[in-house]
Amino acid sequence: MDLRSLAAVPLAALALTACGSSDASTGDSGAGAERLDVVVGAYPYEFVAQRVGGDAVTVENLTEPGAEPHDVELTARQVAAVGEADLVVRSAGFQPALDEAVAQQEASVLDVLELVETRAGADPHAGEERAEEGHAEDEHADEEQHAEEEHADGTVDPHVWLDPQRLATIADEVADRLADLSPDQADGFRERAQQLRTELEQLDTELAEGLASCERTQVVTSHEAFGYLTERYGLEQVGISGLSPEGEPSPRRLAEVAEIARANGVTTVFFEETVSPRVAEQLAREVGATAEVLSPLETAPGSGDYLTAMRTNLEQLRTALGCS
């Protein structure tokens, strides 16, 4: 064997050793299994999927930070991602574009509204625009308007994540679905879901205690996204607009909310970060209140996560309601 052959032996051995070391490292880290692809429609489900999935998942949120998720439009690539995902997490009816993509792609879907008790999302503005276009005095128009309001009462409120206990139930099911997809990593999914449940239950306790004794219970909001939160903690949601933040309230509805605000000494009118504050600020000026942000967490917070944003909401509510 010449000197060149001798020199090649340790180099080859080193290369083999390096390859073996890389494989062992991959196996030790648990990354040997291919990551699962999870697609979600809104930030709260991104938060849950990341916390439960850990390094075993790749999560794509179809709603960009700061965007309004109700009216999200999907690109061709995003529609394809829905079909290719191992799991899609959504609230049916919340994002029509996502619902359409799911139907087209026959995706594997977890509809969170099937997991928890839901509430009807009454929209007090159904038919008001028409009634105020010359039909307000017409008895037949009034009957039609009342019928439409009753129909709107059957609409499911999709904002279930604003109740931490409901979100914990969703996290448990996400863990189970991921475990079915990757049984070797099931223990990790369920352990992380249990840890998240513990944190959400702690948040629930903080909200319950922080909102237990307040001078006022009326929470005036730009749109009715907070029904689960107000219902759980014994408050009353007074929405200017209904479930859709894009709904334009009628003068009659604005007058109704202003009357409620004055009668109950409301000091704050809340609006959300992704929608124009114009109407909330207008109403606040009219009743001598201030306009402040209360986040429905439909989009990722500017800093922190779901837990920190909900604690910020708690402080906003405590100030507005005069809680002790």
What does this structure look like?
The protein is globular and about 60 Å long. It is an alpha/beta fold and 324 residues long. The protein is 52% helix and 11% strand. The chain has a 4-stranded parallel β-sheet, with helices on both faces. It has a 4-stranded parallel β-sheet with strand order 6-5-7-8, sandwiched between helices. α2 (43-53) links the parallel β1 and β2. It folds into 3 domains: 36-117 and 158-205, Nitrogenase molybdenum iron protein domain (Rossmann fold); 122-155, no CATH class; 212-321, Nitrogenase molybdenum iron protein domain (Rossmann fold). α2 crosses α7, α2 crosses α8 (186-210) and α3 (76-84) crosses α4. Mean pLDDT is 84; it is low at 1-31 and 123-153. It contains 12 helices and 8 strands.
CATH architecture of the largest domain: 3-Layer(aba) Sandwich
- What percent strand? 5-15%
Q: How are the strands of the largest sheet arranged?
A: 2-1-3-4
The N- to C-terminal Cα distance equals 88 Å
Extended strand count? 8
Largest sheet: 4 strands, parallel
Secondary structure class reads: alpha/beta
What's the alpha carbon Rg, rounded to whole Å? 25 Å
* Average pLDDT figure: 84
How many structural units, i.e. domains?
A: 3
Determine the CATH topology of the largest domain: Rossmann fold
Rough outline: globular
CATH level 1 name of the largest domain:
Alpha Beta
Give helix and strand order, one letter per element, not per position: HEHEHEHEHHHHEHEHEHEH
Helix content: 40-55%
CATH superfamily of the largest domain: Nitrogenase molybdenum iron protein domain
- List unreliable stretches of 5+ residues: 1-31, 123-153
Give the helix tally. 12
